[in-house]
């Protein structure tokens, strides 16, 4: 019994017991369903072992959507708790756990896989490649992310959630103040999925730099591919920093070292420093692909070439460099001197210049365009004013002297949600609507989509704009309640109403998917939006080899120029195509990582050692394996092509 | 699979070229990994709590020996790649074996060094300084250990399958890894040991 | 026959040994901190560059500039991270 006690949740409540039951029932339902419909083989052959970038992209997408709702429920609970003063809905401990998991899940297990979904699905198509450079590594990246996410999520019912904030600052995150295993979950689960992100970074950089279609020079790449390249450059630069910081944090918690302790020379502030060396570039890792998607969408629906292509590229490259030299603006109040603060203050403000350039480029792209107000375009148009508002408050926060007033208040919370929701979330939903037909072969319902957009926009403004006011009035973030005398009551109630409206919007997305699966017409062709880049030049659904003939590219709007200006996109004839083999090893290896992580979290050393050895055994297996891939014959390709042409 | 005979064997297929390029990107990430360790080391260097400082525990002789061994191993694997490029499999195998043996020697000395530190009262838990020292050295040492297993796997494949496009590619990538570890050690030698003993 | 003899590698090795010996000056000679750190910075970075060019063949393919660009970018960010952190914690706190 003593052995089992460690797995108990330290602060149980009715909600947690209910989730335990719900998780158990869901698992049983999934297993029973798969068995009843005899889908185990299908699942294993077509999905769990796949190395196809498109399927991996779709799996990222599904995981991201599930995590969006998991994080969204946390958000609703927080807003509900703060809706009225002196609320007893949640106690302080549960509130801490909820804002911690909300942050981690939304950033690392929702936004990251969402952008990886688009990168995986789109980049090889946009550059005219068969797959990514290392398809099996790609599968490993996904499964590491997936099992990392699962590991983090079971913390809720096994052993207790982390409760030290998504930044997990020491000494609060140390053993002394966070004795439960929650923070171990944080350290290890993020570590595992972070390894996956690093591998994706290496994979994408190699793919984009080495596998572009003939004629596609760097300055002829679609803007989303450019954004992906720059983003992955940042990923490869900063994820190792997170790796080291998490290792140090893990060692402090599990092995009693003194990196971030308050005794024996330890320095808690070093964690904050290392965390933000990764953490600040991380927000650009999220926003740059979003910018890429907006660029694609705005130029498509304005019916014009992207304005200022070169300045778009230049500003992204400058942002990537600057993003790595601003990290200290997250802790202006920590105690460093005026010189350091001034330096980081100035670099922070400098970032707004290239970002401003991009905003003007989008506006000029729309200028005199024939704008079609589709759902993706609505998100893009809504994004511009709302994101500018978030950017302006960011410049306010960048002034280190003024930051002493804003620091740790709701003003900051309003600011970063104001950049992330219109910036990243709107972009993801716009991209989802835009690329849905390419992924699944039918469009999402336009009318429901527009309702969703308006609900989210209105809900967002109601939920977050009041926080600027309460923040300036002194409402601190991460406080689980406040007294009526503080005067925050009305605005917090408005926030709660806004959050509920957003929740309705997100539920509508699910309804939209259901509705469109049932009623949407399937004969939409390969190019339903009259779009501009290569991913629309192949069939829908995309065949596993992407393009029967390798495309030749002569401009940054290759497909548009092929349609309107008579460029020849596919000059060659069909040849046999080399494809990678499926493999179960990435899945198995990641599952072992899950066991390893779980054992580390609970300090179960024997399974930890065994799973470590098993991980290395998987790597050795890969080294000794002879895997030369397979060929798809010309006859097979032509058969597929005829079938797909008939379908369109 | 297209084979380009104008390039060395390890670059000869498209996938081989991708592998080498991708490994360079990985090494770039490793630069940041060790840079973070150095950042933390420089920050925590003088925070010794009640424990010993660097000046008190560093000794020049074992450190110098480790340096020379690793430098030599970087040289011998360079010779190994040279032998591979002129198609001399026997010399190549010999140089790779020597490299791995030198790596093993390095590891032995490093383990001895750790044991000495622990006997002198500088354990992982003693202070922030000892923790970051051991983490930095340990990360490098773990890389060397991993390299020993990896190199042995490549040697086995070389013996069984001969010098093919795949084995040549793997050997070249391994040599990049090994040289990189030597570069990291140069910085450890200069900015941890020599700076600490200055 | 000249191609068969690994002249480049041997030169590289000799240079590495010389640079290591030069770095030892900070241990055996009585230098100030500034002098010592200058010597170490020079010997370490020159030696790293030597490994990169001579042994790792960084410049032998068409991707030369991408590889060098990437490595220098990383070194740049690495130095910014190190010196930025030192500025925060040691020189200005």
Automatic annotation (TrEMBL), chain A:
Compartments where located: Cell membrane
SUPFAM superfamilies in the record: Cytochrome c oxidase subunit I-like
Enzyme class label: oxidoreductase
CDD domains cross-referenced by the UniProt entry: Ubiquinol_Oxidase_I (cd01662)
Record keywords, A-Z: Cell membrane, Copper, Electron transport, Heme, Hydrogen ion transport, Ion transport, Iron, Membrane, Metal-binding, Oxidoreductase, Respiratory chain, Transmembrane, Transmembrane helix, Transport
Cofactor(s) in the UniProt record: ferriheme a; Cu cation
Pathway assignment: Energy metabolism; oxidative phosphorylation
EC number: 1.10.3.-
Domain of life: Bacteria
Transmembrane regions: 14-37, 58-78, 98-125, 137-158, 185-205, 226-249, 269-294, 306-330, 342-364, 376-399, 419-436, 448-469, 489-514, 602-620
Keyword Ion transport: yes
Residue ranges annotated for the Cytochrome oxidase subunit I profile domain, each copy included: 38-554
Membrane topology: Multi-pass membrane protein
NCBIfam families: QoxB
Protein purpose: Catalyzes quinol oxidation with the concomitant reduction of oxygen to water.
PANTHER family assigned: CYTOCHROME BO(3) UBIQUINOL OXIDASE SUBUNIT 1, CYTOCHROME C OXIDASE SUBUNIT 1
Protein known as: Quinol oxidase subunit 1
Gene from which the chain derives: qoxB
From TrEMBL, chain B:
Entries under PROSITE patterns matching the protein: COX3
SUPFAM superfamilies the record matches: Cytochrome c oxidase subunit III-like
Sequence intervals crossing the membrane: 21-43, 63-84, 91-109, 129-151, 172-194
UniProt subcellular location: Cell membrane
Main localisation: membrane
E.C. numbers: 1.10.3.-
Residues in Heme-copper oxidase subunit III family profile domain copies: 21-197
Domain of life: Bacteria
Pfam families named among the record's database cross-references: COX3
NCBIfam families reported in the protein's UniProt record: QoxC
Name recorded for this polypeptide: Quinol oxidase subunit 3
Species the sequence originates in: Neobacillus paridis
From TrEMBL, chain C:
Signal peptide: none
Primary location class: membrane
Keywords for the protein's UniProt record, in alphabetical order: Cell membrane, Membrane, Oxidoreductase, Transmembrane, Transmembrane helix
UniProt keyword annotation of Membrane present: yes
EC number: 1.10.3.-
EC class of the enzyme, as a word: oxidoreductase
Subcellular location: Cell membrane
Family, as annotated: Belongs to the cytochrome c oxidase bacterial subunit 4 family.
Annotated protein name in UniProt: Quinol oxidase subunit 4
Species of provenance: Neobacillus paridis
Gene name tied to this protein: qoxD
């Amino acid at each position: 019994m003593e052995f089992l006690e460690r797995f108990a949740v330290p602060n149980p409540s009715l909600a947690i017991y209910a989730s335990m039951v719900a998780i158990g029932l869901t698992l049983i339902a999934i297993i029973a369903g798969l068995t009843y419909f005899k889908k185990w083989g299908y699942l294993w052959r077509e999905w769990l072992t796949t190395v196809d970038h498109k399927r991996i992209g779709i799996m990222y997408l599904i995981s991201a959507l599930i995590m969006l709702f998991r994080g969204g429920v946390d958000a609703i609970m927080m807003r509900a708790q703060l809706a009225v003063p002196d609320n007893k809905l949640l106690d302080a401990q549960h509130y801490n756990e909820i804002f911690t998991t909300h942050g981690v899940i939304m950033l690392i297990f929702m936004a990251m896989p969402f952008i990886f979904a688009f990168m995986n699905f789109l980049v090889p198509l946009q550059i005219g490649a068969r797959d990514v450079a290392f398809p099996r590594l790609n599968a490993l990246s996904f499964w590491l992310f997936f099992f990392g996410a699962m590991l983090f999520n079971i913390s809720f019912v096994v052993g207790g959630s982390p409760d030290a904030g998504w930044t997990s600052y020491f000494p609060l995150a140390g053993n002394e103040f966070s004795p439960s295993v929650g923070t171990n979950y944080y350290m290890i689960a993020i570590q595992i999925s972070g390894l996956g992100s690093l591998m994706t970074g290496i994979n994408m950089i190699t793919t984009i730099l080495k596998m572009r279609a003939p004629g596609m020079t760097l300055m002829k790449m679609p803007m989303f591919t450019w954004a992906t390249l720059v983003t992955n450059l940042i990923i490869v630069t900063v994820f190792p920093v997170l790796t080291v910081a998490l290792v140090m944090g893990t060692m402090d918690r599990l092995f009693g070292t003194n990196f971030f302790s308050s005794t024996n020379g330890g320095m808690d502030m070093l964690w904050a420093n290392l965390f933000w060396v990764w953490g600040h570039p991380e927000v650009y890792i999220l926003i740059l692909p979003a910018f890429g998607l907006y660029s694609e969408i705005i130029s498509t629906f304005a019916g014009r070439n992207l304005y200022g292509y070169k300045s778009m590229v230049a500003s992204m490259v400058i942002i990537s460099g600057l993003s790595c030299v601003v990290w200290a603006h997250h802790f202006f109040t920590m105690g460093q001197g005026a010189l350091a603060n001034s330096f980081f203050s100035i670099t922070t403000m400098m970032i707004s210049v290239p970002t401003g350039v991009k905003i003007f480029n989008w506006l000029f792209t729309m200028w005199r365009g024939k704008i079609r107000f589709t759902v993706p375009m609505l998100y893009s148009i809504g994004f511009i004013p709302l994101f500018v508002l978030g950017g302006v408050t960011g410049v306010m926060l960048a002034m280190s002297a003024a930051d002493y007033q804003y620091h740790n208040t709701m003003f900051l919370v309003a600011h970063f949600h104001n950049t992330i929701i219109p910036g990243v979330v709107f972009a993801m939903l716009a991209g989802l609507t835009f690329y849905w037909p390419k992924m699944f072969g039918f469009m999402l319902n336009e009318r429901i989509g527009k309702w969703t957009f308006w609900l989210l926009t209105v809900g967002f403004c109601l939920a977050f704009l009041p926080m600027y006011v309460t923040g300036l009035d002194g409402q601190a973030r991460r406080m689980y309640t406040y007294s009526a005398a503080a005067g925050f009551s009305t605005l917090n109630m408005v926030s709660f109403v806004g959050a509920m409206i957003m929740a309705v919007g997100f539920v509508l997305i699910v309804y939209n998917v259901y509705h469109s699966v049932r009623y949407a017409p399937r004969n939409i062709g390969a190019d339903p939006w009259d779009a501009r880049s290569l991913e629309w030049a192949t069939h829908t659904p995309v065949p596993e080899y992407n393009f029967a003939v390798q495309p030749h590219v002569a401009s940054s709007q290759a497909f548009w120029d092929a349609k309107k200006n008579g460029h020849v996109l596919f000059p060659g004839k069909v040849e046999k195509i080399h494809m990678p083999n499926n493999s179960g090893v990435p899945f198995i290896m990641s599952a072992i990582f899950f066991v390893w992580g779980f054992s580390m979290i609970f300090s179960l050393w024997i399974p930890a050692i065994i799973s470590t050895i098993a991980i290395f055994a998987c790597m050795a297996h890969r080294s000794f394996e002879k895997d030369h891939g397979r060929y798809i014959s010309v006859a097979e390709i032509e058969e597929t092509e005829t079938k797909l042409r008939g379908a369109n | 699979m297209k084979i380009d005979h104008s390039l060395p064997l390890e670059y000869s297929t498209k996938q081989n070229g991708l592998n080498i390029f991708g490994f360079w990107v990985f090494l770039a990430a490793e630069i940041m990994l060790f840079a973070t360790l150095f950042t933390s080391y420089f920050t925590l260097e003088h925070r010794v709590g009640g424990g010993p400082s660097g000046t008190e525990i560093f000794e020049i002789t074992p450190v110098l020996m480790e340096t020379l061994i690793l430098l030599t191993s970087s040289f011998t694997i360079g010779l190994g790649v040279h032998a591979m490029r002129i198609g001399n499999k026997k010399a190549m195998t010999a140089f790779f074996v020597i490299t791995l043996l030198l790596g093993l020697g390095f590891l032995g000395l490093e383990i001895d060094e750790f044991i000495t530190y622990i006997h002198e009262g500088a354990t992982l838990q003693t202070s922030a300084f000892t923790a970051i020292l051991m983490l930095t050295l340990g990360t490098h040492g773990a890389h060397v250990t991993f390299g020993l297993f990896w190199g042995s796997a490549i040697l086995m494949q070389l013996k069984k399958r001969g010098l093919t496009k795949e084995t040549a590619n793997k050997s070249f990538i391994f040599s990049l890894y090994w040289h990189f570890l030597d570069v990291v050690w140069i910085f450890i030698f200069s900015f941890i040991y020599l700076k600490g003993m200055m | 026959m000249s191609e068969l003899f690994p002249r480049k590698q041997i030169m590289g090795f000799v240079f590495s040994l010389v640079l290591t010996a030069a770095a030892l000056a900070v241990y055996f000679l009585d230098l100030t901190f500034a002098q010592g750190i200058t010597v170490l910075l020079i010997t370490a970075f020159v030696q790293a560059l030597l490994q990169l060019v001579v042994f790792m063949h960084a410049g032998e393919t068409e991707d030369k500039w991408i590889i060098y660009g990437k490595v220098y970018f990383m070194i740049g960010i690495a130095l910014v991270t190190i010196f930025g952190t030192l500025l925060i914690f040691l020189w200005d706190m």
